[in-house]
Design brief:
Layout lengths: L8 H30 L5 E12 L2 E10 L5 E8 L2 E5 L10 E5 L4 E3 L4 E9 L4 E2 L6 E3 L6 E8 L4 E7 L2
Antiparallel strand pairs: 1-2, 2-7, 3-4, 3-6, 3-10, 5-7, 8-9, 10-11
């Protein structure tokens, strides 16, 4: 009968440890890829907001927004005092006291990108919701307004401004 020899226990242990480490590295890279898919985050930051008078009872609003998140997002509507002022959707009611939005909606922001959003508020007269709609507020000097940006991800980013 021939004498059979197997691999030594030391060599077997080294092979098992090497295979275990290789599998652990593969799982770590796989999990990193999965985590990256689920951690894409939308986050807009209003870095500056200004209300400058342009005429009697008229203000030019300038808002600078930056995408500090990890995914591209778009601003699809703007609210003033919780009333829809501008929207990318057709047929929505808008406030009669706001005009001249630049740029138009939707405003697409890649990660790290910034954009100035400019529009005018005409005060002194009641602001109504849509043509012939109810009076909702009257913009006046010394008063404040809340401007809220709404994103396609469903998040809202408010900023309080004082009309000088």
């Amino acid at each position: 009968m021939a004498k059979r020899r197997g691999i030594s226990p030391v060599i077997a242990t080294v092979i098992i440890v090497a295979v275990t480490i290789a599998v652990a590295i593969a799982v770590a890279f796989w999990m990193t890829g999965i985590v990256g898919l689920f951690t894409a985050a939308e986050k807009l930051e209003i870095v500056a907001a200004n209300a400058a008078p342009t005429a009697a009872n008229t203000w030019r609003i300038t808002i600078t927004v930056r995408n500090t998140g990890t995914t591209t997002t778009s601003i699809d509507s703007i609210y003033i005092n919780n009333y829809l002022a501008f929207t990318a959707a057709a047929g929505a009611n808008t406030l009669t006291c706001v005009a001249n939005l630049n740029p138009g909606l939707p405003i697409r922001l890649a990660p790290g990108a910034s954009q100035d959003i400019i529009f005018d508020i005409n005060g002194g007269a009641p602001c109504t919701l849509g043509t012939g709609g109810p009076q909702v507020f009257t913009p006046i000097g010394g008063g404040s307004i809340e401007v809220k940006l709404h994103s396609t991800g469903g998040k809202e980013y408010p900023k309080l401004l004082v009309l000088p």
